Amino acid sequence: KHRNAVLRKSNIYGGLHLPLIGRALHLIGSNSENSIQRIRQVVEEQGKTFYSWVLHQLVIFCADPKILETLLSSTVHITKNNVYDMLSLWLGDGLLLSTGKKWHTRRKIITPSFHFKILEEFVEIFDRQTNIMIEKLKKEVKKDPQSPVDMFPLVCLTALDIIAETAMGVQVNAQLNPDIGYVKSVKIVTQIISKRLRTPLWRTDGLFKIFAPFVYRQMMKNINEMQEFTKSVIEARRQKLEALIAENNGMDVKESNADNDDVEKIGSKKHMALLDILLRATVEGKPLSNEDIREEVETFMFEGHDTTTSGTSFALYLISRHPEVQKKIVGEISEVLGDDITHMPTYKELQNLRYMECVIKESMRLYPAVPIIGRYFEEDTDLNGVTIPGNCHFNIPLFVVFRDPEYFKEPNEFKPERFYDEKPEDIFPFAYTPFSAGPRNCIGQRYAMLEMKSVISKILRHYELLPLGPEVVPSLSLILRSTTGMQMGLKPRNIVTSL
Ligand code: HEM
């Protein structure tokens, strides 16, 4: 009653609701493809903020950048809503899901892992792993140069190899052995989570166990397998670190180093950045336990590969459909990286691919890798003059916000130039937040941009992308995908090498 009164007072509308069950029936027939269209349509009909009762749960959708400015800038409203609960069996209470003091402490510990000195080191890993993809592509294209290739699975395995090596320091060889245990488990679990999001009866762990006992057992088996693997990597690295400290007469390597730049030292420790930082961290004088570290490492494994896969493959798809954009990027690549294809780009050079950055930004505007973010409000809360009732699950459909005609001219057109400095189009910062914004923004955003630039530039140096195969059909999940894959043709370029 109270929540309905607040909604009325705030002029938030919800359309037709049935007694007791609310809009639960609307979920029938809604799937990951039509949900995008349905939510866009409701925004057109009822305004940028609307509510939905699903049984006893109040869900608000808000696509108003002015309200988002207040919410995302806040250091208080950082608790996630129940959609994220589906990840907790895998990710525990890691950085993505935690809240309050635990989140603050962990965020402080993990932030140095993304220092530019460390990112500089990762460039070699991005390049080496993408070379493996290029070798695989050569075989694929040779079979039939006219047939389209679905780039999604290839990019996904590359991204998985990259995140495993940069976060844990291990080579899981996903691209060469996609069927080995850990790699297969990551794939199965991400697919099941994606399906849970689309299946209302699988939402809570309790319902999931009852209505899909077999899938639940399959998920738990694969989560256990991943956890065993991650635990063994952490344990092995802890032992190595302890041995190293013992060798140094009880002093950590970073302490024994004359120069006091921790980051420099960690950065030079052979790509072990995240795990090393976590192993060395102490909270109130105590080191983090293996379980504390595990949940953070798993969080990176999830957030750090599915997202960049989506970002990279939608960008490749759009480039394949816009030859004039492709021509411009290839020109920039040649100017910044040179024409010798064996030259490995440096961190600085990747940063200087400015037009490519605009292409990636524009591609994430049309197809945001993280399409929805959510918060939970325990109490009535004022956001930019609108009161949101307490006990409410709040959702921000970024895929609606980023195409708002009030903020973007020709919102459905692919126009990378709108982000180009020389032709600035005044973009309100909270109308475009693919990495979220404020204190709870994406900690890996610079890493992500660097990786996407590295992978895309390498593919474009070897291949011209052609508009072949079906168009994308975006499907809504925790991470945006396409039900038709990311299809395109690949025509080998005339390559210059110094070898
Ligand atoms: C295209 C690539 C990426 C996109 C679009 C993206 C987007 C986002 C967004 C929107 C959030 C906020 C989520 C929320 O509020 O619920 C987020 C959080 C996060 N991202 Fe990313 N992300 C990307 C890549 C990465 C990578 C590569 C990593 C790690 C290497 C990463 C690690 C994280 C973590 C740990 C959080 C939680 C941060 C916190 O709550 O303090 N992300 N990301």
From TrEMBL:
A Pfam family assignment: p450
Record-listed heme binding positions: C442
Highest taxon of source: Eukaryota
PANTHER family: CYTOCHROME P450 4AE1-RELATED, CYTOCHROME P450 FAMILY 4
Organism: Stomoxys calcitrans
Entry's localization field: Endoplasmic reticulum membrane; Microsome membrane
Family the UniProt entry places it in: Belongs to the cytochrome P450 family.
Keywords attached to this entry: Endoplasmic reticulum, Heme, Iron, Metal-binding, Microsome, Monooxygenase, Oxidoreductase, Signal
Protein known as: Cytochrome P450
CC terms in the record's Gene Ontology section: endoplasmic reticulum membrane
Membrane topology: Peripheral membrane protein
Molecular functions (GO terms): heme binding; iron ion binding; monooxygenase activity; oxidoreductase activity, acting on paired donors, with incorporation or reduction of molecular oxygen
InterPro entries with a match to the protein in the record: Cyt_P450 (IPR001128), Cyt_P450_CS (IPR017972), Cyt_P450_E_grp-I (IPR002401), Cyt_P450_sf (IPR036396), Cytochrome_P450_Monoox (IPR050196)
Major place of residence: endoplasmic reticulum
The protein's required cofactors: heme
